Amino acid sequence: MNQNVNILWENCLKIIRDNVSEVTFKTWFSPITPLLYENSIFTIQVPSQFFYEYLEDKFVDLLRMTLHRVVGENTILNYRILV
Question: C-alpha angle 74/78/79, rounded to 5°?
Fold first, then answer.
């Protein structure tokens, strides 16, 4: 696994943790696994289709804003759903 992606994701989580409740953080952000960052695409793995849809519905702005702040303005968020 790319060590760099873990460090970037940890930095994102610090910001996210300040913006949501602890329960929300544990439920929706702790289960996310950072997989890859290349060509300005940041890929995270989520546990299910429902999980993905919920994140996109409720937290997509927070996720994008945080990635842009930590990783870079042009970063694209990409999901991989655990099957």
Answer: 160
